[in-house]
Specification:
Elements (H helix, E strand, L loop, with lengths): L21 H9 L4 H15 L29 E2 L4 E6 L23 E7 L3 E6 L3 H6 L3 E7 L8 E6 L12 E5 L5 E8 L8 E11 L12 E2 L8 E2 L3 E6 L4 E5 L7 E6 L6 E5 L26 E5 L5 E8 L10 E5 L13 E5 L5 E5 L8 E4 L4 H6 L9 E5 L5 E5 L8 E5 L3 H6 L18 E2 L24 E2 L5 E8 L7 E7 L3 E9 L3 E7 L8 E5 L4 E8 L2 E9 L5 E15 L2 E4 L4 E4 L12 E5 L4 E2 L9 E8 L10 E6 L7 E7 L2 E7 L15 E6 L38 E9 L7 E9 L9 E4 L13 E6 L5 E6 L8 E5 L14 E6 L4 E7 L7 E4 L14 E5 L5 E6 L9 E4 L8 E2 L6 H11 L7 E2 L2 E3 L5
Parallel strand pairs: 1-3, 10-12, 25-27, 26-28, 56-58
Antiparallel strand pairs: 2-9, 3-8, 4-7, 4-9, 5-6, 5-8, 11-18, 12-17, 13-16, 13-18, 14-15, 14-17, 19-20, 19-21, 22-23, 22-24, 27-34, 28-33, 29-32, 29-34, 30-31, 30-33, 35-36, 35-46, 37-45, 38-45, 39-44, 40-43, 40-45, 41-42, 41-44, 47-48, 47-49, 50-51, 50-52, 53-54, 53-55, 57-58
Length: 947
């Protein structure tokens, strides 16, 4: 970068008055300026303003009385100003601000005379400034204070302020910028540095900026306000700027830009293009370029332009890439005002030869060579070098910090960014001294689609990009689930670059933080906040991968990356950090419609566990007792005998440092360690968090190892896995004593056991109304109460769309998500055996309604009916007077037999009848007609005679 015009180091270029009074000279000395600096300012002031006159104004004092204080001298009577506006004012005859809060962004003095203004905030960034030509010509030193609240001054609240904040004009003028709140009134106090300096008027400019939070200069509408006559007033970016001209010709340049820039000049935002320039070189002279510019004649794409202006008129300047792409960092915008000669034909140019490197530069104005350069007036570099006047350069070695690769024969200052220069040395000499760092241990590049960290100088000495709790204000970069950040790190001895990335979860989520680096790396995940609380961590050697996986509740967290060591990581070593988020498993209860996140498949729908526990305990754990002194408690499991198929342990322990504690459970001479000093050995002293509040240790726990659970008041769900498996108890009889043992291995933290339990998960098949949804949040599950068909087994009535709880009658049967017509077996009245006791006939699988007047037995076959289904029995009389019991009628139907139903021989008399008379024989013959006739004579059953 080449500049033909310089400024006083740390001092303004000019002072806006013709002479400096004794009081002002004294004040400049008070501000740390040397006598030489003051003389230079005085001389610059005289040179610049030799032909200028002091402006005048009126109506600034009541009744035009020069001896009266200004009308806005009092805090309670401020003058209202608009947004934007320019207002003339004076502190002549103003009174000091008694009681005003000291400081407020200024040097602390409140003794100066001041006047008051007021405006109402509009929600935008507002700039209040006396940095203008009028103030420059009439007033040497101001202060601005911005306040809220009501008078008197002692009751006001400071918003912001400024003492010396002007570039390009008198450096003791003031500029204050603040974010205004819509509708809030603000009081502005403009005062002198001290009462002795009230020797002129000022102009207060109110400038309307972008809405609060929008970067100034990003658009034409929120162009950044800059002052003319300033050098390098805006650096490191392109964008939009605006300034108020104070001369008839303005010159604007981007000398030192690191991208191929383009300057456009407009008369307003969205207005007419007045002038532009792409390359500030000889070929563009006469087409908007500035031949007097310090970068005129260069070929690196810097821009310069001279254009006619109307003083006190605002102009808009756009600095962008000549191809329309975004500017890269490093652009320098210098708004300068020079003599007319600067924008005239170029003067006779000189060659400048760098004494150290021997490099020659053409086209420099007379006197434009830098310190350490020899000027050859009116000569070109070719002519100088032909005369052998430029010495040979002193070359340097450049060592690339990231790879350790060394490059010879570089001009002084010629090393690239990320390289260390060794002036006058060769790479062989550098490497012999061991100065080049070792190359990275492995090839590692940014993953495709990763987001670059974009951190300059690898975050040292101060990381304002993502330094987290290590900087004020705290600084984080965002990262979302599924994203990768590619960054660089550094550990140079006194400090390390530690990078903090912030993310937010709205559901319980299994988070995996994966970091691979070219250095030994620590990967951490912890809740957002300073100081840092509970930490989940992993570490890896260089080129290996650290992985932290943890179930996290909804909230905001930090993913952390940093070197393990304080040395051995040169700037530029790469890492890739990826945030992966997985939904937990959801379990839906179709009986109630309730869904629960983070339930393992084997636990979804199981009957509730058999819990045997003890609560309300207060058993102290001996502090630092180690194995020799521990707290114990025993639970005796009684009742019906059963064997252990699975067992979990519940624990509530009030302890101020859980990393001190080991917990074991013993049963049937078998001991299992369920907590073993969490955080050890990753951390020497283990997890510093306090208390377990209903934590469940479970071999199938979805929360991960309890050894990495460093969370205060940790509880379940989810359940967490112990360091040793509880399955060691599987198969043992569950009945008997279960003993917990708690030991503390470090002082001074301690606390008591308050509750614990042994839990035997429910056995039997899962409830079919429960449904399990892997890697799904309950918010994404339509969990409703399930319904089905309800059949009345007694009546055969059936109803669809009935909940199970509404179909629990003694004769009702319920089937899930089934219609009545699809029930298997069908819904119908019960069937059974139907017996005809008159005939002994029996039919199986008959409805009761189809067995009217007969004997029906529900759910029974004829073969099993009781009493058996058969024809009635009775007594059978033979013709000879004998009798037989328990005879079917069909077996007693002979011509000489007589049958009596449900009778036995003891109830009837069988005998031989007397010889019939002739008349009786006739009747008998006529009656029989070939049939047997039994008649009862004299109360007896008689065998009938045959014809």
């Amino acid at each position: 970068m080449r500049k033909s015009i310089g400024t006083l180091a740390g001092v303004v270029a000019v002072v806006g008055c013709t002479t400096l009074a004794l009081a002002q000279t004294r004040e400049l000395s008070q501000k740390g300026l040397t006598k030489k600096d003051i003389n230079a300012i005085q001389q610059a002031s005289q040179n610049r303003h030799a032909s200028e006159s002091t402006p005048t104004w009126s109506n600034v004092n009541p009744a035009n009385d020069p001896a009266a204080p200004p009308a806005n001298d009092d805090c309670a009577a401020p003058e209202a100003v608009a947004i934007p506006s320019s207002t003339m004012g004076t502190t002549v005859e103003a009174t000091p601000e008694a009681g005003l809060v000291s400081g407020c962004g200024t040097s602390g003095s409140t003794t100066g005379d001041g006047v008051w203004y007021t405006l109402v905030g509009n929600g935008n960034m507002l700039t209040l400034t006396t940095c203008n030509a009028f103030s420059d010509a009439n007033h040497e030193d101001t202060k601005i204070g911005v306040y809220t609240g009501a008078c008197p001054p002692a009751s006001l609240t400071c918003v912001t302020g400024n003492d010396d904040g002007c570039a390009g004009f008198n450096g003791f003028l003031s500029t204050a910028t603040f974010c205004s709140t819509m509708g809030v009134p603000y009081r502005i106090n403009v005062r002198d540095f001290n009462a002795a300096l009230a020797n002129g008027g000022f102009q207060l400019d109110v400038m309307n900026g972008a809405p609060c939070g929008v970067a100034a200069g990003s658009t034409c509408a929120n162009a950044q306000v800059v002052a003319p006559d300033s050098f390098n007033s805006v650096v490191d970016h392109g964008g939009w700027f605006k300034f108020t001209a104070d001369d008839a010709i303005e010159a604007i340049e981007t000398c030192g830009s690191t991208f191929d820039s383009l300057i456009n000049i407009y008369d307003s935002c969205g207005g007419t293009l007045l002038d532009s320039n792409d390359d500030c070189n000889a070929g563009s002279f006469g087409a908007g370029s500035d031949p007097g510019s310090s970068c005129f004649g260069t070929t690196v794409g810097e821009s310069c332009v001279c254009f006619d202006t109307t003083p006190s008129t605002m102009y808009w300047v756009e600095v962008t890439h000549w191809l329309g792409g975004p500017p890269t960092a490093g652009a320098t915008l210098a708004l300068t005002t020079e003599s007319l000669a600067m924008c005239a034909a170029p003067p006779v140019q000189s060659a400048c030869c760098d004494d150290a490197s021997g490099t020659c530069f053409d086209n420099n104005p007379p006197g434009g060579c830098f310190a350490g350069e020899t000027e050859y007036p009116a000569l070109t570099c070719a002519e100088v070098e032909a005369n052998g006047d430029c010495p040979d350069p002193i070359l340097s070695a450049c060592c690339e910090d990231a790879t350790g690769t060394c490059f010879d024969d570089n001009l002084p200052g010629g090393c690239f960014a990320g390289e260390t220069e060794y002036p006058g040395l060769t790479c062989a000499e550098v490497e012999a001294n061991g100065d080049c760092p070792e190359p990275p241990p492995c090839e590692l590049s940014c993953l495709g689609g990763s987001i670059p960290e974009g951190e300059p100088t690898c975050g040292l000495p101060t990381d304002t990009v993502n330094g987290g709790c290590n900087v004020t204000p705290n600084a984080y970069q965002p990262i979302a689930c599924g994203q990768t950040r590619c960054g660089t790190s550094r550990a140079d001895g006194p400090s390390r670059d530690l990078d903090w990335y912030q993310f937010t979860l709205t559901q319980p989520t299994i988070v995996t933080w994966t970091v691979t680096a070219q250095f030994p790396v620590n990967a951490l995940v912890f809740p957002l906040g300073c100081p840092v609380g509970a930490v989940f961590s992993d570490a890896a050697l260089d080129c290996e991968t650290a992985v932290v996986t943890q179930l996290l509740a909804p909230g905001t967290y930090v993913g952390f990356v940093g070197p393990q060591l304080f040395t051995g990581t040169p700037c530029g070593r790469i890492y890739n950090a990826t945030l992966t988020c997985t939904a937990t498993d959801a379990c839906c209860d179709g009986n109630t419609g309730i869904c629960t996140d983070n339930v393992a498949q084997q636990d979804c729908g199981l009957p509730p566990p058999d819990v045997r526990g003890a609560s309300g305990l207060n058993i102290p754990v001996p502090d630092g007792g180690g194995d020799a002194s521990c707290a114990t408690h025993t639970i005796n499991v009684t009742g019906a005998a059963f064997n252990v198929t699975d067992v979990n342990v519940g624990l509530s322990l009030t302890h101020s440092w859980v990393g001190d504690v080991k917990v074991s459970v013993e049963h049937n001479a078998t001991t299992v360690m369920v907590i073993d000093q969490p955080g050890v050995p990753a951390s020497t002293f283990g997890c510093s968090t306090a208390n377990y509040a209903g934590l469940i240790l479970d071999d199938e726990g979805a929360g991960g190892p309890v050894e990495t659970l460093c969370v205060a008041n940790a509880s379940s769900p989810p359940n967490y896995t112990p360091p040793s498996p509880l399955s060691a108890f599987d198969g043992m009889p569950a009945l008997g004593n279960w003993t917990i043992k708690i030991c503390d291995y470090a002082t001074p933290d301690t606390g008591p056991l308050t509750a614990w339990s042994v839990q035997f998960p429910g056995s039997g098949p899962p409830d079919p109304l429960f449904s399990w949804h892997p890697e799904t949040y309950c918010s994404d599950v339509n969990c409703v109460i399930q319904n089905g068909a309800c059949c009345n087994n007694q009546t055969g009535d059936c109803v669809d769309d009935v909940f199970e709880a509404d179909c629990d009658g003694p004769n009702e049967r319920w089937e899930l998500t089934t219609n009545c017509v699809d029930l298997i077996p069908p819904c119908e009245p019960p069937r059974g055996a139907c017996c005809n006791d008159a005939t002994g006939a029996c039919v199986n699988n008959v409805f009761q309604a189809s067995c009217v007047g007969q004997r029906w037995s529900e759910g029974t076959l004829c073969a099993n009916i009781s009493p058996p289904c058969e024809a009635p029995r009775g007594a059978c009389c033979e013709g000879d007077g004998t009798c037989a019991n328990d005879v079917f009628q069909a077996d007693c139907d002979g011509p000489t037999q007589a049958w009596a139903q449900d009778q036995d021989c003891n109830q009837i008399v069988c005998g031989v009848p007397p010889v019939p008379t002739v008349t009786q024989w006739g009747l008998i013959i006529m009656t029989l007609g070939g049939l047997a006739l039994g008649s009862v004579l004299f109360g007896r059953r008689l065998r009938s005679a045959t014809a």
